[in-house]
Automatic annotation (TrEMBL):
EC number: 1.17.4.1
Protein's UniProt name: Vitamin B12-dependent ribonucleotide reductase
Recorded catalytic activity of this chain's protein: a 2'-deoxyribonucleoside 5'-diphosphate + [thioredoxin]-disulfide + H2O = a ribonucleoside 5'-diphosphate + [thioredoxin]-dithiol
UniProt keyword list: Cobalamin, Cobalt, Disulfide bond, DNA synthesis, Nucleotide-binding, Oxidoreductase
Gene3D superfamilies given in the database record: 3.20.70.20
Disordered: annotated segments: 893-929
Residue ranges constituting the Ribonucleotide reductase large subunit C-terminal domain according to the UniProt record: 157-692
Family, similarity comment: Belongs to the ribonucleoside diphosphate reductase class-2 family.
Its biological purpose: Catalyzes the reduction of ribonucleotides to deoxyribonucleotides. May function to provide a pool of deoxyribonucleotide precursors for DNA repair during oxygen limitation and/or for immediate growth after restoration of oxygen.
Comp. bias intervals (Low complexity): 899-911
Cofactor section: adenosylcob(III)alamin
Residue ranges occupied by any Ribonucleotide reductase class II vitamin B12-dependent N-terminal domain in the UniProt entry: 46-136
Upper lineage: Bacteria, Bacillati, Actinomycetota, Actinomycetes, Micrococcales
Recorded GO MF terms: cobalamin binding; cobalt ion binding; nucleotide binding; ribonucleoside-diphosphate reductase activity, thioredoxin disulfide as acceptor
Length: 993
């Protein structure tokens, strides 16, 4: 018997006998068949590099994964979750070992604590849990994968809330407890409002330091501790009540540090995130939030005074203008994205345990809100796995999986270890859980729902209601088997009141389509059972659901979108087996277009357009009323700030906790707009809200040019010292120089007409053919328009002569829309969205090479005709072996068989002769071997070497750098996930789940 089989057999022994346990129902599995035997396994080499330095940061060869797992998923799981030193026999070698390590620990604990009615229920539980994890139906949070089944402490919680009192002992203990939590791979939050302000006296007669001063020490500690064995940096949340006398200092803390970053950067210091000089800046390791109450928000609305209260006796020691204070909060958030807002009265109105204590804080990502000194175990379901081939949502399976997962999550508390005794005691007494989901954005798009639409919100609300209703239904059933949580009796009336509030909110959902009607019907039935069974048994868990960022685990499940977020962009960066990468159009797009009734030819044309442009604006044949379905978090059709707020408001009434999500605003957003977002969030019943204005964080790197230049300079100095040279310190300032055109130069004049208006463009070139000047004649001589065109021409010409690449101008000015616009007389550019759109498309065709303008989607009429005839824009002279391989790769995507349903196995494939199989294997290897990637019309193409993630790909389409941090592990540009960031190169996150 193998070690794995022996462990599995051992886990089935000594099951609790009798009929008082849970009866586990089969969902996916077949009696007598283990889930591992239903899939095809393959071995892969996982090699991970920091693309900037070229350094290999991880290497493990021959790891075993199912063939339908993406390269990214297998890489992230291998590097993040496999335990044991690489190269030793103890190192895990495949997904089976990882899943068995976790699942068998859960099964063993479930049997020991009487969860199952019989041995057969334990076996079904094992198989169903294994199947769901194997097929990426759900995932536990990262600490489960780090710790469960290892010799390390069995820390299973991702989120912790601490407490601190107004004493030095308590403050120093806070530092210590945070350190232990970070070390275990998790994040912590706490409220500092009990600490006396700097405006109050100490018992010794001196003045108190105030909470902001103590934040410095905690921030420094967090900055030096890597959590979970270098899995990610420490994540933390600091909260201060709005009536604390130091609230203004707290509000402006991080904004003032941003001023410092800006000044130091301009002085030449390396202030990139992770740069050697950034450590001199304080308060950068925490998210800050202001805890506001209804009294303050009403004072803001009415423009009245608000009292700041002593921490010692609650007396008002200072009054401020509430509207002015809210303005300062919004201004600080405008400057640096901090602080966020937490709505205290709303949070505590939905609190199931008010007799034990108030909810004062949250975890770092603001989705877990519960008692002080507590923790929460998270898990998330992959919503797209429940969308069937006929585009209906599998309601019954979704509910069954929710009940299966919530059972497993509760079992984990039985064997879990905790960083402190007080956290362990509170968690075991209240058993807070946080089931949630990922891939909502992809599900909405695939089913033809706009993210910011009534239909989209109705579907999201119904799904969230069923999720929490099914979770609490199972919690009530578990209470009848293994007992209610210890704190239930004390809080029974409050808990039951909150259950009725959830049920009432469910009744208020207004469904719009068959899909959400079916889900809502099941949710209503679940909430009826919650109230009835809970009245009899009580509940096993004080909390059941949150919406977490799902950063790393989202990649483990191959999700297109994280948490409650919309799709990040329509074009994705995709790694291929055996190396290499491609850009592909999001595979949910063709599915959505077919559901909307578009013909196959139109679907292909729209997908090809998206592959070129990165957006759907003016896509051929796409109705404008369908644009909203393809709106994204970033890009040309970014979802409006209030669109994010409205989605949060639709789902919030059906969550025990809150939602990890950031409301994105454009760089042009005003302080007043941010203030309005905060006020609307309060009115809509949210529990917490964070904002991010594009480009507000000057400390987030857009490139590593500064540090690279310094490293090179340092290397030269060291080399000179070794050679015995005298060290000369010289400051070198690099400035662009203007390269003027020769007195006599070649030029070409083009006449054009756009939207009925006529003009002339003259383009002058250097002797080597480079473009050096542009002059536009448009409008009557002496008119304002003619003068503006002359000034614009001079500006562009001077920029070209100072070295600004033409492709930069093309990226910036194409797709600008204003009149005159419309048909042109140019056969290569039949439509122009504006004068400058036409001009720079013409310049691109005349002066840029094929590869550069092809990436921008700018082709001649001849090239477009060639694409229709041969499938390639490239002329025959470019048809090299490499180009042919790329075309083969694209063809393999466009002819894919679609994402496999969970039950699909290798046995379903038709038999092949050995010769055919060998030929196909060789072809697959030549094409980098990606399997099972898409269902038709998913345009794929090679990615340029300077793109390493979807965030960097989006930069190419937008023509500007994304405002996001660089991953400190692999150097890839990260992208938002909830209120955190996640790296799709290596799975590192800036958050806690």
């Amino acid at each position: 018997m193998t070690e794995t089989a022996g462990a599995r057999a051992g886990a089935r022994k000594n099951s609790a006998k009798g009929s008082n346990g849970i009866k586990v129902e089969r969902i996916y599995t077949t009696p007598g068949v283990h889930p591992y035997d239903e899939v095809t396994w393959e071995k892969r080499d996982v090699v991970q590099q920091n693309w900037k330095t070229g350094e290999t940061i991880f290497e493990q060869r021959g790891v075993e994964f199912p063939d339908f797992w993406s390269v990214n998923a297998s890489t992230i799981v291998t590097t993040k979750y496999f335990r044991g030193a690489v190269g030793t026999p103890e190192r895990e070698q495949g997904l089976k070992q990882l899943i068995d390590r976790v699942v068998l620990t859960y099964v063993k604990a479930g049997k020991e604590h009487g969860y199952f009615a019989a041995d057969t229920d334990a076996e079904i539980f094992e198989h169903e849990l294994t199947y769901a994890l194997l097929h990426q139906v759900f995932s536990f949070n990262s600490p489960v994968w780090f710790n469960v089944g290892t010799k390390s402490p069995q820390q299973v919680s991702a989120c912790f809330i601490l407490s601190v009192d107004d004493s030095m002992d308590s403050i120093l203990n806070w530092y210590k407890e945070e350190g232990f939590i970070f070390k275990g791979g998790s994040g912590a939050g706490l409220n500092l409002s009990r600490i006396r302000s700097s405006k109050e006296l100490l018992s010794s007669g001196g003045t108190a330091s105030g909470p902001v001063s103590f934040m410095r020490g905690a921030d420094a500690s967090a900055g030096t501790i890597k959590s979970g064995g270098a899995t990610r940096r420490a994540a933390k949340m600091v909260v201060l009540d709005v009536d604390h006398p130091d609230i203004e200092e707290f509000v402006e803390t991080k904004a003032r540090e941003e001023d410092k970053i800006r000044a130091l950067r301009d002085a030449g210091f390396d202030m990139d995130l992770g740069g050697k000089d950034i450590v001199s800046v304080q308060y950068q390791n925490a998210n800050n939030s202001v805890r506001v109450n209804d009294e303050f928000m009403r004072a803001v609305e009415e423009g009245t005074e608000f009292g700041l209260r002593s921490r010692k006796d609650g007396s008002v020691i200072e009054t401020v203008d509430a509207r002015e204070l809210m303005g300062k909060i919004a201004k600080a958030a405008w400057e640096c994205a901090d602080p966020g807002i937490q709505y205290d009265d709303t949070i505590n109105d939905w609190h199931t345990n008010p007799e034990t204590g108030r909810i004062t804080a949250s975890n770092p990502c603001s989705e877990y809100m519960s008692l002080d000194n507590s923790s929460c175990n998270l898990a998330s379901l992959n919503l797209l796995k429940f969308l069937k081939d006929d585009d209906t949502f599998d309601v019954a399976t979704f509910q069954k999986v929710t009940e299966l997962v919530i059972t497993a999550m509760d079992i984990s508390i039985c064997f879990a270890d905790f960083p402190t005794e007080s956290i362990g005691a509170t968690t075991r007494d209240y058993r807070q859980l946080g089931i949630g989901y990922a891939n909502l954005g992809a599900l909405l798009m695939a089913t033809g729902h706009g993210y910011d639409s009534d239909g989209g919100r109705a579907l999201a609300a119904s799904i969230t209601s069923l999720l929490t209703g099914a979770a609490y239904k199972r919690s009530a059933e578990l209470a009848g088997v293994v007992g209610a949580y210890n704190g239930y009796a004390r809080n029974a009336d409050a808990h039951k009141r909150v259950m009725r509030k959830h049920a009432a909110a469910n009744d208020a959902i207004r469904t719009m389509h068959t899909m959400d009607k079916d889900i809502h019907r099941a949710a209503t039935k679940a909430w009826d059972a919650v109230v009835k069974v809970g009245e009899k048994n009580g509940y096993r868990n004080a909390q059941a659901s949150v919406l977490a960022p799902t950063g790393t685990i989202g990649f483990m499940m191959d999700c297109d979108t994280t948490g409650i977020e919309p799709d990040f962009s329509l074009v994705k960066f995709k790694k291929l087996v055996g190396g290499g990468s491609m850009q592909i159009v999001n595979l949910t797009i063709p599915r959505a277009l077919r559901k909307l009734g578009y013909t196959e030819e139109t679907v292909e044309a729209i997908v090809e357009f998206i592959a070129d442009k990165g957006h759907v604006i003016d896509a051929p044949g796409l109705k404008t009323e369908h644009y909203e379905i393809f709106d994204t978090a970033m890009g040309a059709r970014a979802i409006s700030p209030m669109g994010h707020v409205r989605m949060m408001a639709a789902t919030q009434p059906f969550l025990s906790g809150a939602i990890s999500k950031t409301v994105n605003l454009p760089e042009t957003a005003t302080v007043e707009e941010i203030e309005d977002v905060y006020i609307q969030g309060w009115k809509m019943g949210l529990k917490a809200l964070a904002v991010y204005r594009d480009a507000c964080k000057v400390g987030q790197p857009l490139s590593d040019g500064g540090s690279t230049a310094k490293d090179a300079e340092a290397g030269k100095a060291a080399a000179g010292a070794e050679a015995g040279e005298t060290k000369v310190v010289e400051k070198v300032v690099y400035r662009p120089t203007r390269e003027r055109l020769p007195k006599r130069r070649n030029s070409q004049t083009t006449s054009f007409a756009i939207g009925g208006a006529e003009g002339y463009m003259t383009a002058g070139t250097y002797e080597d053919g480079r473009l050096g000047e542009v002059f536009l004649k448009f409008g009557k001589q002496g008119s304002t328009l003619a003068g503006v065109m002359d000034a614009f021409s001079i500006a562009i010409s001077v920029g070209l002569q100072y070295g600004v690449p033409l492709e930069t101008y093309v990226e910036k000015y194409t797709n600008m829309r204003f009149e005159p616009a419309g048909m042109t007389d140019d056969q290569d550019i039949r439509m122009g969205q504006s004068l400058v759109d036409y001009v720079f498309r013409r310049l691109a065709l005349d002066h840029l090479d094929f590869e550069t303008r092809s990436f921008m989607g700018i082709h001649t009429a001849e090239e477009r005709q060639r694409q229709l005839e041969t499938g390639s824009y490239a002329p025959a002279t470019v048809d090299s072996d490499d180009a042919e391989a790329i075309e083969d790769e694209i063809e393999s995507y466009s002819q894919g068989v679609g994402a496999a349903s969970p039950k699909k196995t290798a046995a379903a494939a038709p038999a092949k002769t050995d010769e055919v199989a060998a030929d196909e294997a060789g072809e697959s290897e030549d094409r980098a071997g990606e399997v099972n990637f898409g269902a038709g019309a998913a345009s794929a193409r090679e990615v340029s070497g300077d793109v390493h993630s979807s965030a960097e790909l989006l930069e190419k389409f937008q023509g500007k750098s994304a405002d996001a941090p660089i991953c400190m592990t692999c150097g890839t540009k990260m992208r938002p996930a909830g209120s955190c960031y996640v790296c799709e190169g290596c799975g590192s996150t800036s958050g806690c789940s």
